C-alpha cells in the first residue's frame, strides 16, 4: 500500500513540483529525511566537490508555515553546502524542488535511498575531473560520491576528451563505449570528423571507430607533426606526400617523425631537469592519466608576498589601471608586482618533486609538475615541503635490479622472435591457422597477434533503410582475450572448415571499394 501511494505521489510530483532558488538560511533538515546522521569526513569531502563543481543535483523539500523549506531529500548535500558556501558565496542561493503537498514530500523522503536519480555520466565525468584538477585524490573523490575508486578511475579516463565528444555522449548521440574510443585519438580535427560520422548511428562498432581514429597515414594535422614541425622534419631528410585532391600532407617516413618527436620531447624534459626539478619524465599520451598521478603527493603552488611598501604601491597602481591612467613605466611596474604575487613552485618544492612533459591534442607542449614520489616523501618532509605522518614513513623495499640491461633483454626478444618466425616457414598449415585466428573476433580486441593492420571500409550508406547486411560482415571483437594460447587451441580444434570460413570472412570485411577500379 505504502509503495503504491509513494509511486502515485512521485508521479504527481513530476507534474506539480516546481524548482525554486531558496536562501541557505531558509533551509533546514526535515525530520522526514532518512539521512539524519552523516559522516563528518564524507560531508567535508562532498563540500570540496561542491566547491570545485557546484551543485549538480538539486535538493527537495516542503515549505512550512514560516515559509522556510524542510529538506526531505539531499540531506548530505545540504550539510556540505553549509560548509562550501564559506568558500563559494554564490552557492548561498540553493536550487530545490518544492513539493506541492505533505504526501509528495513523504513519498520523496521514502524514495530517497531507492529512487534517487543518478548523475548523468557526463556530469559525473566533469565533476570528477574538476575535483581531480583541484588536487583531490581518487580515494577522496570516491568517498565524496559514494562510489568505488575503480569507478572514479574509469570516469577520469574520459575527463580529457574533447568537449564535443562529451556533449554528444550527454545528448545520447553516442554510447559510453564509443566515447571511450576517442581517448586514443592523436588528431583532434580527425576526432571531430569521426564524431560527426558516428553520431546518431548504431552501426559503427568500437573497433571501427578506433580504426577511423588511428589511420595508418600520419597527416600534417597530427599532434606529433604539429609539435615537431614540417620544416624540422624536412630538414632531417623526411619526405611529404600531398593529397592532390585535398589539403592534407602525409608523412612518408613515420619512423623519422617519431624519432624527432621523442627527441624534442626529451629535450623539453631535460631543460626542466636542468632547471632544478628532481625528476621529469616523458609521457607519450595527450594527458597524464590519474592512474599515474594518484599514488603520488601533489604539491600546491605558493603565492609570493609583497612588502608593506610594495603592497601600497600595488594598490595605487591598481587604481590607475582601473581608471586606464597608467603610463608605460607604471604599467611595467604593475605587471612586475602582479607577477611577484603569482602562485609558483618554490625552489624547495622544485628540488623535491617532479612531473611529466607531454603533447596535447593541438600539438602544444604541456607539463604536469609538482608531484612527490612515495620513495622521495621522507626527504621531502625533511625539507619541509610536505608534512610527515605521525607514524613516520614506511621505507619501501628497493626494487631488485635486473641482471640484464634493457638493450640485452630487447635483443633476446628479437632472437626469440626470429626463431619462431623461422619455424613457421616450414609449417604453412599452422601459419594459415594463426592468420585466420588473428583476424577473427575469437582473438579478442585491443591486442595484435601479427603486425598486420586491417581497415573497416564503410559499407553502410547514409540512408540505410531496407539494407540487410550479412552479419558476418559486421562481426567485430569487442572484448579482450585473456589467454591467447588457450583460445588458439580451441580455434584449431574446430577444424579446417572453420578456419577457412574465418579467414574468408576476415578478408571479405577488408575489401576496399577502389580495388574494383
Model description:
- The strands form four sheets. The protein has a five-stranded mixed sheet. A four-stranded mixed sheet has the order 9-13-14-10.
- The protein is globular and about 85 Å long.
- The longest helix is centred in the middle third of the chain and has 21 residues, at 254-274.
- The model is unreliable at 1-7 (pLDDT under 50).
- Strand 7 and strand 8 form a beta hairpin.
- Helix 1 (2-16) packs across helix 4 (102-110).
- 47% of the residues lie in helices and 11% in strands.
- It has four domains: 2-117, Conserved hypothetical protein from pyrococcus furiosus pfu- 392566-001, ParB domain, CATH 3.90.1530; 216-274, no CATH class; 277-382, no CATH class; 411-516, no CATH class.
- It has 517 residues and is α+β, with helices and mostly antiparallel strands.
- The protein is built from 23 helices and 14 strands.
Class computed from helices, strands and strand pairing: alpha+beta
**With helices defined by DSSP (H or I, 4 residues minimum), what is the helix count?**
23
Helicity, as a percent range: 40-55%
pLDDT < 50 stretches: 1-7
Shape: globular
Give the oligomeric state of the chains in this entry, treating copies of one chain as homo and distinct chains as hetero. single chain
Amino acid at each position: 500500500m505504502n509503495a503504491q501511494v509513494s509511486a502515485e505521489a512521485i508521479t504527481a510530483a513530476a507534474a506539480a513540483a516546481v524548482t525554486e532558488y531558496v536562501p541557505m538560511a531558509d533551509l533546514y533538515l526535515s525530520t522526514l529525511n532518512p539521512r539524519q546522521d552523516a559522516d563528518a569526513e564524507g560531508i567535508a569531502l562532498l563540500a570540496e566537490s561542491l566547491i570545485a563543481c557546484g551543485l549538480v543535483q538539486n535538493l527537495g523539500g516542503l515549505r512550512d508555515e514560516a515559509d522556510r523549506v524542510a529538506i526531505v531529500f539531499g540531506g548530505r548535500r545540504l550539510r556540505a553546502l553549509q560548509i562550501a558556501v564559506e568558500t563559494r558565496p554564490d552557492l548561498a542561493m540553493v536550487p530545490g524542488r518544492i513539493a506541492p503537498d505533505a504526501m509528495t514530500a513523504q513519498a520523496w523522503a521514502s524514495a530517497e535511498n531507492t529512487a534517487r536519480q543518478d548523475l548523468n555520466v557526463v556530469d559525473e565525468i566533469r565533476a570528477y575531473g574538476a575535483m581531480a584538477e583541484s588536487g583531490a585524490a581518487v580515494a577522496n573523490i570516491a568517498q565524496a560520491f559514494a562510489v568505488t575508486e575503480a569507478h572514479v578511475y574509469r570516469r577520469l579516463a574520459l575527463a580529457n576528451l574533447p568537449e564535443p565528444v562529451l556533449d554528444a555522449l550527454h545528448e545520447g548521440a553516442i554510447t559510453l563505449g564509443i566515447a571511450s574510443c576517442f581517448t586514443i585519438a592523436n588528431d583532434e580535427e580527425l576526432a571531430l570528423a569521426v564524431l560527426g560520422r558516428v553520431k546518431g548511428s548504431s552501426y559503427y562498432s568500437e573497433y571501427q571507430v578506433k580504426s577511423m581514429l588511428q589511420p595508418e597515414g600520419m597527416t600534417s594535422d597530427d599532434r606529433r607533426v604539429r609539435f615537431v614541425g614540417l620544416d624540422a622534419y624536412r630538414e632531417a631528410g623526411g619526405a611529404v606526400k600531398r593529397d592532390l585532391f585535398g589539403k592534407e600532407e602525409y608523412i612518408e617516413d613515420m619512423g623519422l617523425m617519431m624519432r624527432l618527436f621523442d627527441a624534442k620531447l626529451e629535450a623539453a624534459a631535460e631543460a626542466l631537469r636542468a632547471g632544478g626539478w628532481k625528476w621529469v619524465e616523458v609521457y607519450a599520451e595527450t594527458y597524464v592519466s590519474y592512474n599515474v598521478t594518484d599514488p603520488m603527493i601533489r604539491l600546491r603552488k605558493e603565492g609570493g608576498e609583497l612588502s608593506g611598501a610594495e603592497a601600497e604601491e600595488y594598490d595605487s597602481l591598481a587604481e590607475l589601471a582601473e581608471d586606464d591612467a597608467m603610463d608605460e613605466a607604471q604599467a611595467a611596474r604593475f605587471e612586475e608586482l602582479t607577477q611577484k604575487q603569482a602562485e609558483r613552485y618554490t625552489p624547495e618544492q622544485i628540488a623535491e618533486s617532479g612531473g611529466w612533459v607531454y603533447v596535447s591534442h593541438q600539438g602544444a607542449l604541456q607539463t604536469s609538475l609538482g608531484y612527490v614520489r612515495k620513495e622521495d616523501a621522507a626527504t621531502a618532509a625533511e625539507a619541509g615541503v610536505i608534512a610527515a605522518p605521525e607514524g613516520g614513513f614506511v621505507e619501501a623495499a628497493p626494487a631488485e635490479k635486473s641482471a640484464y640491461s634493457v638493450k640485452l633483454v630487447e635483443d633476446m626478444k628479437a632472437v626469440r622472435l626470429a626463431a619462431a618466425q623461422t619455424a613457421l616457414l616450414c609449417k604453412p598449415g599452422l601459419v594459415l591457422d594463426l592468420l585466420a585466428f588473428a583476424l577473427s573476433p575469437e582473438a579478442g580486441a585491443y591486442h595484435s597477434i601479427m603486425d598486420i593492420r586491417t581497415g573497416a571500409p564503410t559499407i553502410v550508406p547514409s540512408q540505410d533503410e531496407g539494407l540487410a547486411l550479412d552479419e558476418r560482415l559486421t562481426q567485430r571483437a569487442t572484448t579482450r582475450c585473456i589467454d591467447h594460447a588457450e583460445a588458439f587451441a580451441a580455434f584449431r580444434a574446430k577444424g579446417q572448415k572453420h578456419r577457412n570460413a574465418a579467414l574468408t570472412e576476415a578478408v571479405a570485411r577488408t575489401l576496399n571499394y577502389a580495388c574494383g577500379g
